[in-house]
Fold:
Amino acid sequence: MYKKLLITTAVLLALNVVSANAEETKSYSPYADDNFTQNVYFGEFHLHTSFSMDAGMVGNTLTPEDAYRFASGERVVSSSGQPVKLVRPLDFLMVADHGTNLGVAPMLWSADPDLLATEYGKKWYDLVQAGKGKEGVYLPWLKTTMQGKDMINSEKIMKNAWTQEMDAAEKYNNPGVFTAIIGYEWTSMPNAANLHRVVVFKDGKDKVGQTLPFTAFDSEDPEELWKFMADYEKNTGGSVLAIPHNGNMSNAQMFKTERMDGSPINNKYAVDRMRWEPLYEVTQIKGDGEAHPWLSTTDEFANYGTWDINPFMGDNRKERNMSAEYARTALQVGLQIEQKIGANPFKFGLIGSTDAHTGLVAVGENNYMGKFPSSEPSAERVEEVLIPSPIDKKYDLMTWQEVGSGLTAVWAQENTRASLFEAMQRKEVYATTGTRMQVRFFAGWDYKKGDALRPDFAKHAYNMGVPMGSDFTNGPKGKAPTFLIQAVRDPDGANLDRVQVIKGWVDNKGERHEKIYDVAVSGGRKIGNDGRAHKVVGSSINANKASYTNSIGAPQLTTYWADPDFNAKDSAVYYVRVLEIPTPTWQAYDANFYDLKMPKEIPMAHQERAYTSPIWYTPAH
Amino acid sequence: MKVIWKEPLVYFLLLSGLLFLMFSFFEQETDNSQEIVVDRASLLSYIQQKTKIVQQDKLIKMFDSMPDDKRDDWVNAYVREEALYREAQALRLDENDPIIKGRVIQKLEFITKEYSEAILNVTQTDLDAFFDNNKQNYYIEPFVTFTHVYFDSGTHGKNSAKSLAIEKLNELSNNKVSFSEGIKHGDRFPYHVNYVERTPDFIASHFGQAMSDKIFALKSSDMKNITDTWQGPFESEYGMHLVMVNRIEAGRFPALSEVAQQVHQDVQREQIQQNLDKSYQEIIDTYSVKQVGI
Structure:
């Protein structure tokens, strides 16, 4: 016995000598063994090119290759013939063209022989040639597609288009410099309700090429999409996730508490949804979906980029269940469902995208290239109808209503497909409305006030707690959770107004609650006992010139915060919202550039923002 | 044959077929002349295809201010295309298309499905029988809540990672390191530190199947010895892990009353499929099949 112990000890000692364990043999260099995520990368997962029918049929001439070139910093010429370039290159992009009749539009223009071999391919080609591209092809296509009918229905054509999409991503993927990700959009629209998801692959063409996009023609039910995704992982050994968007246009379907067949969400649905859909796209050109002023009545910043009237349905806001459309409320409803069925179907992180159909990720307010080719810069664009309502002209969506939003920020070790994808899986990502501000958010039990001032802020925060997107539970008895938050402005953008923690929770009666805490504000303003700073930051905008200065606000806000209202028995969800100082909108830049006088209803100033992925607290068993 | 004529579905399909015949009879013949007419309208729409100018007024403005030689180029290009197109049509290259065949069958399937949905009837006996035979579909998955301390095989090497983990296990246990303090130890894992109420599939997607299996196997021992003690090391695809479980629940089958609504819909779906299969067979039975020299 004694001998055995001696040998074990000797073996352990010997192993220890060769190990490079930081805890046992400290290096002189304090950074030698750093392995926390130090880099934030900006880009997006939801850009359309001419390969999408609703882009290529309405004047978009840019290819996926053009899109990657533009995002990686090159100067390109837009569909309307305008030269355009980004202020700085982005770090990553996924072209997400609609899977439904992927690539058919450019094939129609180029008389693709495989397409013309199909009944409708030929018919549409003839109509396009007869100058009836819009009335004869595009509008009828919209109608049949919304009914789930695939008029082309050809695996060969899908394969041709999909190969081109994959090849473009492979060509422009440059690990460490610019990451091009393979994916597409699953465009499910039962009864004109937007249940769209972008589908993101971790892998290259070798694996993704073994499958074809599962489209809304295959099924409009997200559960069928998840089955396709599970099969993909099983058959190829690859990884895939899906990101829903535009709950605001979903007619209360996005976060409803029933499955598509009408039965209540069950355990399997909740488990599957969170396995395959760890993220939600909370902001984009077709509206900002963080919060709605009717749901969050005490939030003076909730009415940002609100698009709550679906042109296909008219104004049914009073009849529909808005709480199934907006992210903040859905996060709380998820906690309620978890109480009932033991699993939370709405435990998602937050990202932002453009959903632009121009092939251009250009949502900087002074460089805003619009949603469709028709909303690319012109003196007339603000007056143009963006989406006509089939019901009544007063429900038309106008181009001036477009929101110059958004982008995704990813905290990752390196700029590669694998590293970015892993960060998305662990939800260490956040949404911005187009700015590139840096935001860090951590929760733990032992942070101290002085931690916010440490030079090794991030390293310490990682060593003592969990970052955005994480769970925490089972804390020390009697202790409230503590948080560390750091926000730094976009180097080419505006100063910061304030940092807020938005908390949602469910009490022991199953009621949901939300509360906003201002946790760091610029300009020495006071935060009252109610947790709010009621004094506004002011404005430095010169309205005549569409300009502003960083003479107000703060370039950086870093803070420690402890939840003053914590109850260890209530499930809770915390996320951070950071507001910039007021800046001119793209409409204001238009007014200045084209010398226009804008009607009153058009917003000329706004406060851009970031929303972090949440951190969830679950009571211990 | 007599039995088949009593089926309403067959009547329904027959009527649809007659209507189709009537419409095709009155359809006009296509123009097949050898003359190519180039008029303003056709040329305009041709240019629109090629230049992709979507707005009509812009196009007309551009066309009217075009120099003559440029306009002639457009006319020539148009004539070439039109001639080749008509020739391809004359050779009937658009006929005998298997995709059109598939599409027509699909239309018939849609009609049959609507019919199948209209003749549903679900009873309590159906529900009980279906639930008994399909219990697996209503299974509630097992889940686990744990935190872990990680040692990276990539940086330490597998053996060292293991010995470090064994050492650390003693330290954590001797010092009674709590669930929330575990984070201060070990290396950074690519995914999370804490896993709250997660299922085997989710754990497998972050740690690999083998480790997921091992964690859920902990259930078989005495629970009191598992929760709030450090276990391991467990090997994942990335390295070695010491695990402290807070909660672990086995999977279970709910009672019919818990999932009654869902079962009802599933029975409906099954009935529709049975009706469909029956309908298709009835259609096939109206044909006699002769196999020749296969």
Notes: Chain A has 15 helices and 27 strands.
